[in-house]
């Protein structure tokens, strides 16, 4: 089938099998589009300035963390203000295994995910009795307690001094450069996105959404609430653990101040601005919130000749803008960037017959 | 023994401030089912504005405090109108995130205006400490304890006997029923937020006098959450009991455990208590238990 007019997307498509019907890339144009995006992503570090490759790495790490939180909060409806702490668990697992025990990164990475998943499941236990606000506060307690343990268990974590990690090695080739790390992050990001996209087409994924929409009704329909809530916590923490492990291996140094409550709130902001309960939204949100401070800083540098005082207040201004953006999105577009983008696409799809 | 008494006294004093700030949480939760994650920033605003008036504009202390409280009433009403009202009837997470966003916005604006250095109040309370049977207490502590207790009593009476207080309780109990009785729930919300801002500001002024003012003071907003939960999120007396209890536990744990684990116990104890409370009695000591049936 050929797409004759790129603005008229869904006309003239018909399917002859159930598999075709259920395909994620339903439309041939969508397949082309994804192929194009993949090629751009793969070629990006070859043409871009290393600084931008570094930024892309940070975005990729954030995408994995945000996806995890979105599975828990957006799809399962369990609010968590502890994603930063679960990332810390992943990062510290990697750090301890690599720097203290000398294990390879390829063993430490899955270990980080699994340890974080276990810790996350433990802190998810209150979710059976608590919901909404109370659960949010319980996860906040998890954040504070995990931070405390990291700072004070000096024998294991080096306390505030932090841990320095060696670079991951692949077939004797050290992944030190931004470009090499870029491909590692890209691969894991793609795996995380594909897994999440498919999860919500399966029975367990549907069960998670049922828990979000009305947990009592879900229980009546035979869904084991406790099991699925814990699964969601474990899964979200697994993503967080992988994201934290990548962060540690990329930055090569971890310390408690990288995983404060501000980080947890940043991730919540990512999924809210991107779109709760949307896989693509997690990606948009992670890009937006990671790049926003950098754009703000560049803007401040741009106008600093005119306002020489701005350098001192830029951090505070960033914080204010961050808060303002959250509030504005919540009031005017609660479904986030994913919905905004969909609105744009819908407009062109229907144009010029918008009614 | 003296060490123990010293810890108890300082625990009670800090606890009285906690109780005040927790009262702000409880008020807002009772009337609108929202937890205000920006409570700490309201506290900061109160502390900074009064400090600016006293130190910057040389206003005498009492008028400065009154002006500050007036400003906080305005701030509470404006915040309710602009930020919170659009979320009436929205899911919990929107409300939580809105107040988290608000806290970030306020903290940013405060830092743009006042910077991040610690500022101290000019000495308002007499500086020489009082000896109470072997325990040395600085006078500012006694003043804050007395003020906090007085205000708590005042609010208890306000809710029990004043018509505004009764209207607020009615709206909290059942918004629909209150509306049908001709109560303006929106007005109640505005009053609630104004009172919560005022209460937080008083806490901020007291704490500012004790420790000096800098943006990290806002972290007390999160620290007081366990207080509100322990007492029960919708119970005024719970906030008071919870405040003193957490203040005491924290002070004792800090005093005796800090040398063993190397500091910081004070910051984490309230949250450990919180987890235990949530596991055993999610609705707190005095909170209303919500029962769900299928």
Strand content of chain B: under 5%
- Proportion of residues in helical segments of chain B: over 70%
Helical amount of chain A: over 70%
Distance between the termini of chain A: 27 Å
Assign an overall shape of chain B: globular
Terminal CA distance of chain B reads 54 Å
For the sheet with most strands of chain B, the description reads: 2 strands, antiparallel
H/I helix tally of chain A:
15
Low-confidence runs of chain A: 1-8
Please state the CA-atom Rg of chain B, rounded to the nearest Å: 19 Å
Strand content of chain A: under 5%
Return the string of H and E elements of chain A: HHHHHHHEEEHHHHEHHHH
Walk me through this protein's architecture.
The complex is a heterodimer of chains A (355) and B (294). Chain A has helices spanning 18-22, 28-47, 50-75, 83-100, 105-124, 133-152, 154-157, 178-199, 203-213, 215-220, 225-251, 261-274, 279-303, 310-332, 336-350, and strands at 163-164, 169-170, 173-174, 253-254. Chain A has 355 residues and is mainly α. In chain A, helix 9 (203-213) crosses helix 11, helix 13 (279-303) runs antiparallel to helix 14 and helix 13 packs across helix 15 (336-350). By secondary structure, chain B is mainly α. Chain B has helices spanning 2-32, 39-56, 61-84, 92-114, 139-161, 163-173, 175-180, 185-211, 220-223, 225-231, 236-261, 265-280; strands at residues 130-132, 135-137. In chain B, helix 3 (61-84) packs across helix 8, helix 10 (225-231) packs across helix 11 and helix 10 packs parallel to helix 12.
């Amino acid at each position: 089938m050929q797409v004759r007019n790129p603005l008229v997307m869904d006309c003239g498509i018909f399917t002859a099998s159930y598999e075709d019907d259920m395909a994620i890339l339903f439309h041939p144009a969508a397949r082309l589009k994804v192929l194009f995006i993949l090629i751009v992503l793969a070629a990006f570090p070859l043409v871009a300035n290393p600084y931008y490759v570094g930024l892309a790495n940070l975005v990729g790490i954030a995408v994995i963390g945000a996806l995890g939180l979105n599975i828990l909060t957006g799809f399962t409806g369990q609010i968590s203000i502890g994603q930063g702490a679960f990332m810390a668990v992943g990062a510290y697992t990697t750090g301890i295994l690599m720097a203290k025990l000398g294990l390879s990164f390829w063993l430490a990475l899955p270990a980080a995910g699994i340890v974080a998943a276990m810790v996350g499941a433990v802190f998810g236990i209150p979710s059976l009795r608590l919901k909404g606000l109370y659960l949010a506060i319980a996860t906040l307690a998890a954040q504070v307690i995990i931070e405390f343990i990291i700072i004070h268990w000096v024998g294991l974590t080096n306390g505030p001094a932090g841990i320095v990690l060696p670079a991951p090695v692949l077939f004797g080739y050290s992944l030190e450069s931004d470009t090499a790390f870029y491909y590692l992050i890209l691969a894991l990001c793609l795996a995380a996105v594909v897994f999440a996209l498919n999860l919500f087409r399966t029975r367990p994924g549907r069960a998670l959404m049922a828990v979000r929409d009305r947990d009592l009704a879900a229980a009546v329909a035979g869904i084991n609430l406790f099991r699925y809530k814990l699964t969601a916590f474990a899964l979200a923490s697994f993503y967080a653990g992988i994201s934290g492990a990548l962060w540690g291996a990329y930055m090569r140094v971890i310390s408690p101040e990288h995983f404060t409550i501000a980080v947890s709130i940043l991730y919540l902001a990512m999924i809210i601005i991107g779109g709760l309960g949307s896989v693509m939204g997690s990606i948009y949100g992670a890009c937006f919130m990671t790049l926003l401070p950098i754009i703000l800083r560049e803007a401040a540098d741009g106008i600093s000749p005119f306002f020489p005082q701005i350098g001192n207040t830029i951090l505070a201004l960033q914080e204010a803008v961050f808060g303002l953006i959250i509030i504005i999105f919540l009031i005017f577009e609660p479904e986030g960037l994913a919905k905004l983008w969909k609105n744009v696409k819908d407009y062109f799809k229907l144009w010029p017959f918008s009614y | 023994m003296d060490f123990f008494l010293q810890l108890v006294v300082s625990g009670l004093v800090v606890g009285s401030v906690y109780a005040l700030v927790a009262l702000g949480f409880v008020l807002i939760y009772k009337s609108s089912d929202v937890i205000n994650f920006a409570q700490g920033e309201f506290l900061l605003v109160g502390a900074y504005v009064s400090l600016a008036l006293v130190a910057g504009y040389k206003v005498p202390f009492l008028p400065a405090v009154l002006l500050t409280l007036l400003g906080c009433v305005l701030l509470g009403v404006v915040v309710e109108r602009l930020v919170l009202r659009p979320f009436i009837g929205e899911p919990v997470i929107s409300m939580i995130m809105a107040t988290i966003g608000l806290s970030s916005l306020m903290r940013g604006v405060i830092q743009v205006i006042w910077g991040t250095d610690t500022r101290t109040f000019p000495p308002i309370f007499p500086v020489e400490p009082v000896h109470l049977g072997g325990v040395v207490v600085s006078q500012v502590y006694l003043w804050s304890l007395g003020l906090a207790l007085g205000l708590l009593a005042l609010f208890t009476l306000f809710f029990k006997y004043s018509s505004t207080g009764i209207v607020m309780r009615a709206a909290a109990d059942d918004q629909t029923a209150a509306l049908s009785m001709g109560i303006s729930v929106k007005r109640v919300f505005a009053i609630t937020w104004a009172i919560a801002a005022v209460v937080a500001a008083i806490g901020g002024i007291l704490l500012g006098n004790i420790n000096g003012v800098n943006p990290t003071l806002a972290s007390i907003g999160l620290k007081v959450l366990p207080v509100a939960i322990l007492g029960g999120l919708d119970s005024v007396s719970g906030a008071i009991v919870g405040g003193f209890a957490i203040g005491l536990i924290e002070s004792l744990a800090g005093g005796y455990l800090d040398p063993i684990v190397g500091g910081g116990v004070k910051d984490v104890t309230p949250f450990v208590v919180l987890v235990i409370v949530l596991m055993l009695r999610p609705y707190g000591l005095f909170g209303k238990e919500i029962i769900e049936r299928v």
